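May I ask you to review the protein record following this short note?
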Amino acid sequence: MMESDAQEMLDLSPLPLCVIQNGLFRYANRSMVQLSGYLWEEMSHLTLEKLIFPGDLFSVHRWIAEPGNQEQIEGEQIRFRLLNSRGQVIQVVGFFRRIAFQGAPGVLCQIMEETEFAHGENNGVHPLEAIRLREVFDYLSCAVAVYEAVADGDDFVIKDFNLSAERIDKIEKKVVMGKPLSYVFPEIKKWGLFEVFQRVWRTGKAEHIPRYIYQDARTVGWRNTYVFKLGTGELVSVYDDITQCKQAEEVLKDSEKRFREIFSQSPIGIAIYNGDGQLMDANKACLDYFGLPGVDAVKGKELLNNFHIPKQLRSQLLDGETIKFVTDISFDRLRKKYTFPTTKLGRCYFDFLITPLKTERNTCYGFLMQVQDITAQKLAEEQLKYLSLHDSLTGSFNRAYFDQEMKRIEESRLDSVGIIMFDIDGLKLVNDTLGHNAGDALLVAGANVIKRCFRAGDIIARIGGDEFGVILPNSDQAAAETGCQRVQDAVSCHNANNPELPLSISMGYAVSSDVKNTANLLKQADDNLYREKLYRRQNAHNAVIQTLMEALKTKDFFTQGHAERLALLAEKFAQFLDLGQTTRNHLHLLAQFHDIGKVGICDSLLFKTEALTPEEETEIQRHCEIGHRIALSAPGLASVADLILKHHEWWNGEGYPLGLKGVAIPFECRVFSILDAFDCMISDRSYRKAMPVQDAIKALILGSGTQFDPFLANSFVEFVERELKTTS
């Protein structure tokens, strides 16, 4: 056919036809020109867009765009509205197909009015439409297969099979066409899908099998299938391989499970709020922190109205910023004032971290709150702070705080300041004799007495081992003297109520209007204290010694008159030996105070009736050293301190505590050891009865040269025998 004849046929065609190149009309037949309402001379300068109703431009845009921007689609049927030169809107169907026109790429557009298209559909599908439908069928992303029932639905023959079905089922179309379903998919009955085919064929009701797994020797995977029946009686299955989705879903489930486990087991409290700030979920740690039985008790509570969030931070949170803060919560107040359903009591400290949860577009869809109970840490910090400024034993301020306050006063505008220094008398003696527990008790008692005597604004601190200092802001000399008098009165009252361990406090004060030189003021007060202490030292030590003697009387060897008997025996034996007065005085004091060190020994050892262990014997032997320290601290006993230390030494060197031997042992101690041993033997003890005097004499003779000085032992035996004769 000649090219001119072909163009004449196109020109005479009743169907509007045109060719578009680069968006412009390059050819239009008479029907197309007539439909547009324009002259050809006008159309040749128009774009197809000019004839398309604005609302439908998007649907045909790909066919009128530049060739380089065109998507590679060979043909397409599009319904749109055509707008002619007279402003009439005509509903049409356009058939677009890519062609080569005059050696260049172009688009052939065949247009039918909607009424003509409908008439054509009633009489059969247009060939172009059939091509389009075939292409759609083949290139659908999901698998599509058409089946025809055979043997009254006992099986189904495959009539059609698209490309996606070949891909998913790993088999070519030419292999399956005309083959029974049970042959192509031998395991279909095992997985239950065959029953679905039969049911749909019989009932005509479509069914959806959302997820199942199919597996045979050729293929395996998860499927999502729709089965429905056509009017022709054929069955169609539309299915897709959702294995990757299923695997992703399993991964997501595992991830969610791990998250849920981390969420529930986390020691950090976690709460999740929605975009409106309403509580959605909380883990166990969070519920436990706030004493809640479960999340339902507080579900829906609003985060942003929580009064524990500072206002400034609340604004930052609303602006999309993460906030962090520490606050304390009174659960008693929450329960009473806000009817918060908590079982927790008291006050706790919490560390909060609240993070806005955002989408990729920076839109907030919720909030994540993390919280930790830091009550123990906070209390520990407060305790450390307290201990850094307080004395742990007495609860008074310590030297560091005292010095800090002294500096603060120097920088203040006070008119005057007073400082009073206090010293607990005899503390070292009490520590050395009664032990540090007794000394600590004396310190605590002294601190309490001092604290009760001053104002709340006065600074009371323990600034040394036995020293306390009191700072009196804006005080004159009369106020300082009054404070000292109150302490003296309080000490007297304390001693009346606690005679077992009397308290003695020396004191000295200084007052000045020069608050810029507190160091000099402290020195003046300390000097005054020292003078007071020198004046009171003898009386203070005597009071402590008297207390120790009273304590010693509670021991068994005092209640039985041991010291009195020894003193009388020592006086008689000294006369027998014709000893000088000094020696007699030493023996008399040694008889009274030789065991004073036993006030520092545990009563359970002193009163024990069973044999002592080596460790217990060593502990009891310490009474010599304790007694020695006590005697040195008391001027009236200093002369016999060395004798108290050595009165348990043996002639042969096997005594204690120094292991002295022979004449290296003081004479008074050699005499006293004989007297002490003899009185113990002839007196009743808690663990035995008294020995006859003759048996005691035999024991002394037996110990002569080992435990006792042989000369003195023989002299004492002679003395006792003479006394016995005189008595008889």
Notes: The chain has a mean pLDDT of 84. The domain at 553-727 is CATH 1.10.3210.10 (Hypothetical protein af1432). The CA atoms of residues 62 and 70 lie 6 Å apart. The radius of gyration is 57 Å.
